[in-house]
Amino acid sequence: MEDLDGVEQCYAKSFDDAPPDDPKGRGLTEGDVVKAVREIGLPSLAIHIQPREETLVNVPTILYTVPRAFDRSINLLGFAIDLTADPMSFHWVHGDGTTATTNRPGAPYPGMDVTHRYRVPAKSVHPRVDVTYRVRYRVDGGAWQTVGQTLQASGPASTLEVHEAAPVLTRP
Questions:
Q1: pLDDT tens digits for 98-125?
Q2: Which end of the chain is more exposed for a tag (fewer CB within 10 A), N or C?
Q3: Is the bond into 51 cis (omega within 30 degrees of 0)?
Q4: CB under 8 Å to 67, separation ≥6 — which residues?
Q5: Residue 28: pLDDT over 70
Q6: 128-139 and 145-146 as β-strands: parallel, antiparallel, unpaired?
């Protein structure tokens, strides 16, 4: 893959046995588009945690991410391809052996759209968010088509300490 004038170029080996009426070597398939999208890579999103680096057992910990637009134009096997990908779901890996899936990216406080309650203390857990994308493409400015499969991008893991606190009576 090569970047020329802001347009990514993807190339595949040529086929010597292409029919003579196919000047571009062969027809473009959805599999070619999927392979190109995987090579380019969909946005992996960072997980944001509130409170930031430490939380308490049995207290709701807020999780969210900030989706990024994915729009690319590439040249693939001699065709001009426009690509777009939209998040469909967010798979929250809490780092304590539990997971949850939502169709929303969560929100910072006071939103509390996506939360998790850690049940046991831990010196460090490594939560992350994996995003499932719906990919659409068009060939040479034609009609938009949806890829028949979803594609996933795993986000980088964060580090979070989970502490246990006991209530203390300060006034009798």
A1: 999 999 999 999 999 999 999 999 999 9
A2: C
A3: yes
A4: 43, 45, 87, 105, 131
A5: yes
A6: antiparallel
Which two tokens mark 97?
């052996």
For residue 50, the SS3 value is strand
Q: How far apart are CA 43 and CA 2, in angstroms?
A: 19
Taking alpha carbons only, the member of 137, 42, 144 closest to residue 87 is 42
- The one-letter code for the residue type at 40 is I
Catalogue all structural domains in the chain, each as residue range(s) with its CATH number. 2-16+23-163 (2.60.40.10)
Output the average pLDDT for the chain. 87
Please state the pTM of the whole predicted model.
0.80
Three-state DSSP state, 120: coil
CA distance 102 to 141: 33
* Residues linked to residue 126 through DSSP beta bridges, in sequence order: none
Q: Is 62 exposed, middle or buried (0-12, 13-18, 19+ CB in 10 A)?
A: buried
Distance separating alpha carbons of residues 129 and 94, to the nearest angstrom: 8
